[in-house]
Amino acid sequence: xxxxxxxxxxxxxxxxxxxxxxYISLNIKxxxxxxxxxxxGAGKTTLLRMLCTLIAPDEGTITIDGDNIYTHKEKVRxxxxxxxxxxxxxxxxxxxxxxxxxxxxxxGMSAHDIKNQIEMLAKRFGMRKYLDRRVEGFxxxxxxxxxxxRTLIHDPNIVxxxxxxxxxxxxxxxxxxxxxxxxxxxxxxxxxxxxxMDEIAQLCDDIIMMHKGQIVYEGKxxxxxxxxxxxxxxxxxxxxxxxxDLYV
Length: 248
Description:
6-stranded mixed beta sheet, alpha/beta, ATP binding
């Protein structure tokens, strides 16, 4: 269970303070696939960066299974896999295998466990043909597969993705969605932001709608459809912004 309690974060922009996340509270259940939507600047990426301990909130707390993620950073980080959009985190001069070995070692994995995990991920993601090639020559889709494998090398139970299909071709985006189905079947908790409403509709159990750092809806996708008597997510999101809805 992820518990976000009255979390806020602000930044300076041209000598002005901008509140990126404005005292939000959420409970995210284990094993759920959660979609995070909102316009650019809504606070989605800031929220995800706080969840993965890259930045700390100004106020409020975040706990995972009862552990405060800022006082137990190392313990929490071993439970998390993180991929931020086009930031693959890969080293171009290394092969795909060498990249995975390096990141596995950062998590304190043994050489034996790293080798077994790489073999499993290479088979699962169809990477065997280019596992020992340098990453610098890879297509975007190939890099994305290695980046997802890098995210999963230590077998995390919570995975955070920030707009993971941005810039991918149809085939690569479809492969990513298939990965989400697989992760869900393994009981992993997935939180991902996207501007593609079809991804939310196809993949998610729950949805979080953000607007100007605040929550306008948080809950089951099917309950949202039923309450609003519509399955058009673009319309539903726009409607909640226009109405000024705030989730309580």
